[in-house]
Write a structure and sequence with these properties.
The complex is a heterodimer of chains A (365) and B (455).
Chain A: H1 6-9, E1 28-31, H2 46-71, H3 86-94, E2 101-103, H4 109-114, H5 119-126, H6 160-174, E3 180-185, H7 192-203, E4 208-214, E5 217-218, E6 221-222, H8 223-226, E7 243-247, H9 251-266, E8 272-277, H10 295-305, H11 307-317, H12 322-345
Parallel strand pairs in A: 1-7, 2-3, 3-4, 4-8, 7-8
Antiparallel strand pairs in A: 5-6
Helix pairs in contact in A: 2-3, 2-11, 2-12, 3-9, 5-12, 6-7
Chain B: E1 2-6, E2 16-22, E3 29-30, E4 35-40, E5 45-49, E6 54-59, E7 68-69, E8 73-78, H1 87-95, H2 104-107, E9 126-130, H3 131-145, E10 149-153, H4 169-173, E11 178-180, H5 185-197, E12 201-205, H6 216-224, H7 226-229, E13 239-243, H8 259-263, E14 269-271, H9 276-288, E15 293-297, E16 305-309, E17 322-325, E18 330-334, H10 337-351, E19 356-360, E20 363-365, H11 369-379, E21 382-385, H12 394-406, E22 415-417, H13 428-434, H14 438-448
Parallel strand pairs in B: 10-11, 10-12, 12-13, 13-15, 14-15, 18-19, 18-21, 21-22
Antiparallel strand pairs in B: 1-8, 2-4, 2-7, 3-6, 4-5, 6-8, 9-16, 14-20, 17-19
Classes of the chains: A alpha/beta (365), B alpha/beta (455).
Chain lengths: 365, 455
C-alpha cells in the first residue's frame, strides 16, 4: 500500500474538539480517527449519524449510476466521480449554516447533492437535458444553484479559489455573518492564484474556509511528485492562516474540524485551511488509464477506510437496527433510480436555447 | 557660469504641468540634490532637484503657474565657475527635463468639441472635463447611488490611482469601498467575479490592460461564460476597466490594444470611449449593466478635455455608435484615441476635397453595425482604424461584415488602418512608424476614393 495517507498509520483520536485554534498558537493540529464519544460534545446523535450515512450513500449510489450512464454513452464529455470522498462534503455541509456559500471544482456532483440540490436536476444536467440545473448547457462540471448558495462547478483547476474568496468578500462587505466554503484539490494547491487568494484572505480577514480535498493524486500525479514540502495544511503558514490536517475518510472528524474552522471565520478572525486526507476510488475522469497506482492500493483503501462502511459500523455498534440501515439503502436506491429515469426521459434542450443566456437584458438603453 | 533648470516630464505622456511650489527664492544658495520646486500635473506630483551647487539668480515662472511646457526654463543658477555654458552643461540641465517624449502626432491630438453627442437627451448645460475627471465622476456618482458598487485594484486608494483616475474616492467612500490590492491581478479579478456572484457590483481596475493578461482566465472563463453555463442563473455584473493600448515610449509589454481579444468573446460587453462625455456616460451604463463589461480607456486621452453634460443621470447606452462628423465620400470608423486621429484626417481630407464621415464606434460588443452599414451605403467606401494588430483585429471583423452585408454598395475594397504587425518598439521613430498616424488614414481615404494608387 504505497499511498495511504500518513494519518492512517498514526491515528491518534485524542485532541479532537478540545481546543480552539488560533493563529498565534501552533498552526497545525491533526484531527483524525473517530472522535471518542466522551470528549466530544458535538458527537452527533443517532439520527444525525443516520442522516450523514444517508447523504454519503446517496452520493455513492448517484456516482455509481452516473458511471453506468457514462458507459452507456448517455453522459458525455468529462465526468469526475466523487466516490471515496463523500465524507468531506457531507461532513462539512452538516455543520455549515443557512446562507453560507459553497464553491468547488469540476468534481462537483457530491457537493451539489450535499447542498440540497435534487438528484433529478443534477442527473438531468449530466445527460444534457432541459430539466438539468443549467438546462443542459453546463454539464457535469458547470452546475449552479443560487437558491442553495451553490456557486459551481468550475472547470479550470483552482479558478474557483479566488471566486470563493470573492464570495467571502461579499459576506464581509454585506455583513451577512456567512462563510465561504471553498473546496479544491491537491492538484489545485500548486496554482499561483491559490496563494494570491491566501494572501488577500489573510490580509483582509475574509471569512473563508479553504477545504483542500487531498485525494493523493492530481490526475495521475501523486502529491509526492507534485508538491514540495510535506503537509498541504501548512501552505497557509506564511500568511498566518491556521491549518488542520483531517482524516477526510471519517465524516465525524470532518464535522469536528469543519465546525471549528467555520466558528473561527465567523468570529472575524479570517481564513482557515483544512487539509482533508482522502482517496478517490475511481479514475480522475472516466477515461483514466489507472497505471499510476496499484489495484492493491485502491482495494486496501476501500476495505480499510471506506467512509460509508466505517459509519455503518459505528451505527451498528451503537445498536441501530440493521433494518433501519437497510431501509436507507432502499430509499437511496429509489432516489437514484428515479433520477436516472428522469434524466433519460427529459428532452434535450430546445434548439432556441443555443442563443439564450449569453447576455442579460436590462442594461441602460 | 549660469545653468538652467527646466520643466521636467513626469511621465511618458506629459507635455505640460504646473509649478505648484517654489522652495527657493532668488539669492538662495543651493547644493546639488536640494529640492528647488514641486511640480504637478493632473496625474502626478514631483520634486525638482538642483543638479549643481550655486546661487539662484532667476525664477522664470511664478508659483502656481499652470500649463508650463516640458523643457521650459523655470530657473537659472549661477555656479560661480565663470565659464560660458558648454553644450555639455546644457545637456546636463536637460537630463532632468528630457524632451517631450510623445510622438508629435499623439501630443498634438487636440480635443475636438463634441457637438454631436446626442445619445441621451441632456439639459444642454455643458462643462469641460478631462476624460480622467469624467471617469472619476462616473464612479463617484454610481457609488453614491448604489451601496453595492465598490472599486478595487492596485493603487486605487491611498495613491489616488496610478493615473489619478480614482482621485478623491478613498476620502469620500473609505477603504471598505475603495480597496487597494496587492499586485495580484488573477487573484483580485477572480475575487471580483466571486463578489459579483455574491450580489455586489465590483469595478475592477487594472493598472493597464496589459496586466489583465494575468487575469484573462477569470475574465473569460469565469465572468463571461458562467451565465450561459448556469442556464441563466449566474449573472456577473462587473466592470473591468483601465488603460488599454499604447501610451508612449513604454515598448512592447505595456502597449498592446486588447480590443479584439475581448470583443471576440460572447458573454462580455466591450466599450472603448473617446470623449469625456462618452467616458462618463458609458462607465455609468457599464456599472449599471447586469453583465461583465470590459471598459477600455486610453492613457493619452486621460488629460484631454471635452464638454460633458451636467445632468446627474448622463448615461450613454452600450451598443450605440456615434457619427462624430458627417460626410459623403468615405466612411471611417474608429474607437478610443483613433477617433481623434480620424477627425484630424477628415479635416485634412476636406481640404483635399474628400468628405469623410467619421463614426466613433464607442462600443465594440455589441457592435452598432447598422450605423456603419447606413453610412457605407451612403459613401460606398469603408475604412476602419485601430491601434491594434491587423490580423484578426476589429478591422478584420468590420471589413468582413461590411463586405457581407453591403457588398453591392461598395465602390472599393474596405481598408484597415491598424498598428504595425510587430511588438511595439521603444525607439521614438520606430514607435511612430508602428502606430497608425493621421496621414495613414488620409492615404487610405485617398486610396479608396481612387485619388492615389493602391499601396
Amino acid at each position: 500500500m504505497a499511498k495511504t495517507p500518513k494519518s492512517a498509520s498514526t491515528a491518534k483520536p485524542a485532541g479532537v474538539g478540545k481546543s480552539s485554534v488560533s493563529a498565534t498558537k501552533k498552526n497545525i493540529r491533526r484531527v483524525q480517527g473517530r472522535p471518542p464519544k466522551n470528549v466530544t460534545p458535538e458527537y452527533p446523535d443517532t439520527n444525525t449519524m443516520l442522516d450523514l450515512y444517508e447523504q454519503m450513500l446517496l452520493i455513492r449510489r448517484f456516482e455509481e449510476k452516473a458511471g453506468q450512464l457514462y458507459g452507456m454513452g448517455v453522459i458525455g464529455g468529462f465526468c469526475h466521480l466523487y466516490i471515496g470522498q463523500e465524507a468531506i462534503v457531507v461532513g462539512m455541509q452538516s455543520v455549515s449554516k443557512e446562507g453560507d456559500s459553497v464553491i468547488t471544482s469540476y468534481r462537483d456532483h457530491g457537493h451539489m447533492l450535499a447542498c440540497g440540490m435534487t438528484a433529478d436536476g443534477v442527473m438531468a444536467e449530466l445527460t444534457g437535458r432541459r430539466d438539468g440545473y443549467s438546462r443542459g448547457k453546463g454539464g457535469s462540471m458547470h452546475m449552479f444553484s443560487r437558491e442553495k448558495n451553490f456557486f459551481g462547478g468550475h472547470g479550470i483547476v483552482a479558478a474557483q479559489v479566488p471566486i470563493g474568496l470573492g464570495l467571502a468578500f461579499s459576506h464581509q462587505y454585506r455583513n451577512t455573518g456567512g462563510v465561504s466554503l471553498t473546496y479544491f484539490g491537491d492538484g489545485a494547491i500548486n496554482q499561483g492564484q491559490v496563494y494570491e487568494s491566501f494572501n488577500m484572505a489573510a490580509l483582509w480577514k475574509l471569512p473563508v474556509v479553504f477545504v483542500i480535498e487531498n485525494n493523493q493524486y492530481g490526475m495521475g500525479t501523486s502529491v509526492s511528485r507534485a508538491a514540495a514540502g510535506r503537509d498541504l495544511a501548512d501552505r497557509g503558514k506564511a500568511y498566518g492562516i491556521p491549518g488542520m490536517q483531517v482524516d477526510g475518510m471519517n465524516v465525524l472528524a470532518v464535522r469536528e474540524a469543519g465546525a471549528e474552522a467555520m466558528a473561527y471565520c465567523r468570529e472575524g478572525k479570517g481564513p482557515f485551511i483544512l487539509e482533508m486526507q482522502t482517496y478517490r476510488y475511481r479514475g480522475h475522469s472516466m477515461s483514466d488509464p489507472a497505471k499510476y497506482r496499484t489495484r492493491e492500493e485502491v482495494d486496501a483503501m476501500r476495505k480499510q477506510r471506506d467512509p460509508i462502511d466505517s459509519l455503518r459500523e459505528i451505527l451498528v455498534h451503537d445498536g441501530v437496527e440493521n433494518d433501519k440501515i437497510k431501509a436507507l439503502d432502499t430509499k437511496v436506491k429509489a432516489i437514484v433510480s428515479k433520477a436516472s429515469d428522469f434524466a433519460l426521459a427529459s428532452p434535450e434542450p430546445d434548439e432556441a436555447e443555443l442563443w439564450t443566456d449569453v447576455i442579460l437584458e436590462g442594461g441602460v438603453s | 557660469m549660469s545653468v538652467t533648470i527646466t520643466m521636467p516630464a513626469l511621465s511618458p505622456t506629459m507635455t505640460e504641468g504646473k509649478l505648484a511650489k517654489w522652495f527657493v527664492k532668488v539669492g538662495d544658495d543651493v547644493r546639488s540634490g536640494d529640492v528647488v520646486a514641486e511640480i504637478e500635473t493632473d496625474k502626478a506630483m514631483m520634486e525638482v532637484e538642483a543638479l549643481d551647487d550655486g546661487k539662484i539668480t532667476a525664477l522664470e515662472v511664478t508659483e502656481g503657474q499652470d500649463g508650463i511646457a516640458v523643457g521650459t526654463i523655470i530657473a537659472v543658477l549661477d555656479t560661480g565657475e565663470g565659464a560660458m555654458p558648454t553644450p555639455e552643461d546644457d545637456q546636463k540641465g536637460a537630463t532632468q527635463t528630457a524632451e517631450p517624449l510623445t510622438p508629435s502626432s499623439v501630443a498634438k491630438l487636440a480635443a475636438k468639441p463634441a457637438e454631436t453627442f446626442s445619445a441621451t437627451p441632456h439639459s444642454g448645460v455643458l462643462t469641460p472635463l478631462t476624460v480622467r475627471e469624467a471617469l472619476r465622476d462616473a464612479m463617484a456618482e454610481e457609488m453614491r447611488r448604489d451601496e453595492n458598487v465598490f472599486l478595487m485594484g492596485e493603487e486605487v486608494g491611498e495613491y489616488q490611482g496610478a493615473y489619478k483616475v480614482s482621485q478623491g474616492l478613498l476620502d469620500e467612500f473609505g477603504a471598505r469601498r475603495v480597496v487597494d490590492t496587492p499586485i495580484t491581478e488573477m487573484g483580485f479579478a477572480g475575487l471580483g467575479v466571486g463578489a459579483a456572484f455574491g450580489e455586489l457590483r465590483p469595478i475592477i481596475e487594472f493598472m493597464t490592460f496589459n496586466f489583465a493578461m494575468q487575469a484573462i482566465d477569470q475574465i473569460i472563463n469565469s465572468a463571461a461564460k458562467t451565465l450561459y453555463m448556469s442556464g441563466g442563473q449566474m449573472g456577473c455584473p462587473i466592470v473591468f476597466r483601465g488603460p488599454n493600448g499604447a501610451a508612449a515610449r513604454v515598448a512592447a509589454q505595456h502597449s498592446q490594444c486588447f480590443a479584439s481579444w475581448y470583443a471576440h468573446c460572447p458573454g462580455l460587453k466591450v466599450v472603448a470611449p473617446w470623449s469625456a462625455a462618452d467616458a462618463k456616460g458609458l462607465l455609468k451604463a457599464a456599472i449599471r449593466d447586469p453583465n461583465p463589461v470590459i471598459f477600455l480607456e486610453n492613457e493619452v486621452l486621460y488629460g484631454q478635455s471635452f464638454d460633458v453634460p451636467d445632468d446627474e443621470d448622463w448615461l450613454v447606452p452600450i451598443g450605440k455608435a456615434n457619427i462624430v462628423r458627417e460626410g459623403t465620400d468615405v466612411t471611417i470608423t474608429a474607437f478610443s484615441i483613433m477617433v481623434g486621429k480620424a477627425l484630424e484626417a477628415a479635416e485634412t481630407l476636406a481640404a483635399q476635397g474628400i468628405s469623410a464621415e467619421v463614426i466613433d464606434l464607442r462600443s465594440l460588443r455589441p457592435l452598432d453595425i447598422d450605423t456603419i452599414l447606413t453610412s457605407v451605403k451612403k459613401t460606398n467606401r469603408f475604412i476602419s482604424c485601430e491601434e491594434g494588430f491587423p490580423f484578426a483585429g476589429i478591422g478584420a471583423e468590420l471589413s468582413a461584415q461590411v463586405t457581407e452585408k453591403a457588398f453591392d454598395w461598395l465602390d472599393a475594397p474596405p481598408l484597415r488602418v491598424t498598428g504595425a504587425d510587430v511588438p511595439m518598439p521603444y525607439a521614438a521613430n520606430l514607435e511612430a512608424l508602428a502606430l497608425p498616424q493621421v496621414d495613414t488614414i488620409v492615404q487610405a481615404a485617398r486610396e479608396v476614393t481612387y485619388q492615389k494608387e493602391r499601396g
